[in-house]
Amino acid sequence: MRQSQKRIRKVMLIFPPVVFSTESPKQIMPPLGIGYLGAYLRDDYEVRLLDAALEGYDVECSVAHGFRRYGLTPDQIKARVEEFSPDVVGISCLYSSQFEVVAEICKSIKSVSGEIITVSGGTHPSFLPQVCLNSCSGLDFIVLGEGEDTFKRLLDSFNKGSSYYNIDGIAFKDNGQTRVNPKKDFIENIDDIAYPARDLLNLEKYFKIDLPMGLISRQSPAMNMITSRGCPYECSFCSSSVYWGRNYRMRSAENVLDEMARLKRIGVKEIKFFDDNLTLDKQRAKKIFQGMIDRKFNFTWNTPNGIAVWTIDEELIELMKKSGCYEITLAIESGDKKTLRDIIKKPIDLDKALQTAKMIARHGIDTYGFFIIGFPQETKQGIYNTLKFMELIKLDRVSLFLANPLPGTEIYKECIKRGYLSENSVFLDYFKSSFKTENFDRKFLESLRRKWYWKYNLKLILRNPFKFFKIYYKFIFRKPLYLIRAVFSKFIIPELKT
């Protein structure tokens, strides 16, 4: 509970260092979460953004369980806090593996001044507020889910001297007890939200590192953006619909195109759409793509976060191609019908996915696929069916992940219920198995994933060497040391351990 009545004037928003397994690739793009928060607050508060992962990108160290961390050290972050002297520090926690770093940062901030109010948000604290508040004495508040309006209402309550006890979507300690106000209210018209405050970040450094999500780009510099929030589906492995709500909320096509115009003016040449459901409303999607053509942006673009396969038709693909799309990520997840229907509850028709992949290829757009193995209750036969489907669909590249029970999902709850996982498990990663079941163990999954991943992607060299070099030329010619390190950490080191 807040101890000071000092007026809030200065707010610092931090994206913390990233904790990742040795098999995970380092990627860096502007954090949209603190970018949107900064834009929402800047008219009423002096705001500073700190992407600690970017500013300490070359600072790496080993942490527990075979993981590594990159980003500014807690002492370096502390120095930045001392220099700005904020009244409130908000710390994003996008990944569960970041929470221990968030706790370290909160502790170091409190050593600067106990009067500084610390707030965290993001998926991990949003779904485990009691665990996070009980394990982190330096953390004062948690903002649950969509944060712009909630965070501002919290800050405004401090300055108005009003109670924050009933603010929607916050958690805090009250006389030693954790109080959680469930998230109920979401911003309906997201056109009202200002564009991310990218000007408060070191854009040139992102452009120089040039390792966007998905790693692949046709032009530099690239920039990420999101055009919608919420998801009407109830996939059991995904926390997005819980975090953003099941009401699909879209920015208007004009609002999206106006943001693109701003990005064009600062020299951006490629767009990375981070939406979960970019093409869910086909008419809006077509207006966006046609607008990109009409305004002659000449962007190249792709969808590294994946799109819903069932939303695509030929007319849409034609517009995507004309507007600069060079790669579509198909979030298929499983090639086993029983797993799709009974375990992850994703409404994908595998036959339709095959047809869609061929249709995309006919229009000269590359295909990238997401697949996941190792769900609780999944059988080995179900896993092998997914691997067979990967061979059948013949995508240009794939990522094969291990099931990661994200807090807030049905699968997470199932893992806790069955004793596969504890609520204190934070070292979760899509390239390392975090639990074993009656049907398989971690070693089986990790070995199988690694062999099939490399087998599939390296086959591309034989199947279509021109396309392989077209996709990976950046790493072969411009970042050879990155490629060598990736191969060594993903392939050679794990083999030596087994």
Class computed from helices, strands and strand pairing:
alpha/beta
CATH class of the largest domain: Alpha Beta
The CATH architecture name of the largest domain reads Alpha-Beta Barrel
Strand content: 15-25%
Q: Brief description of this entry?
A:
Helix content is 42%, strand content 17%.
Question: Care to describe what's here?
Answer:
This protein has 498 residues and is of the alpha/beta class. The chain has two domains: 10-180, Cobalamin-binding domain (Rossmann fold); 212-463, TIM Barrel (Alpha-Beta Barrel), CATH 3.20.20.70. It contains 19 helices and 18 strands. The chain has helices at residues 32-41, 52-55, 74-84, 99-112, 123-127, 129-135, 148-160, 203-209, 240-244, 253-265, 282-294, 314-322, 337-344, 350-362, 380-393, 410-418, 442-463, 465-478, 480-497; strands spanning 10-15, 18-21, 46-51, 60-62, 67-70, 88-92, 117-121, 141-143, 170-174, 177-180, 222-225, 228-229, 249-250, 270-273, 300-302, 325-333, 366-373, 397-402. The termini are far apart. Mean pLDDT is 91; it is low at 491-498.
Give structural attributes.
TIM Barrel, six-stranded parallel β-sheet, Rossmann fold, disordered C terminus, 2 domains, seven-stranded mixed β-sheet, alpha/beta, 498 residues, 19 helices, globular
SSE order and pairing:
Blueprint: E1 10-15, E2 18-21, H1 32-41, E3 46-51, H2 52-55, E4 60-62, E5 67-70, H3 74-84, E6 88-92, H4 99-112, E7 117-121, H5 123-127, H6 129-135, E8 141-143, H7 148-160, E9 170-174, E10 177-180, H8 203-209, E11 222-225, E12 228-229, H9 240-244, E13 249-250, H10 253-265, E14 270-273, H11 282-294, E15 300-302, H12 314-322, E16 325-333, H13 337-344, H14 350-362, E17 366-373, H15 380-393, E18 397-402, H16 410-418, H17 442-463, H18 465-478, H19 480-497
Parallel strand pairs: 1-3, 1-6, 6-7, 7-8, 11-14, 14-15, 15-16, 16-17, 17-18
Antiparallel strand pairs: 2-5, 4-5, 8-9, 9-10, 12-13
Helix pairs in contact: 1-7, 3-4, 10-11, 11-12, 17-18, 17-19, 18-19
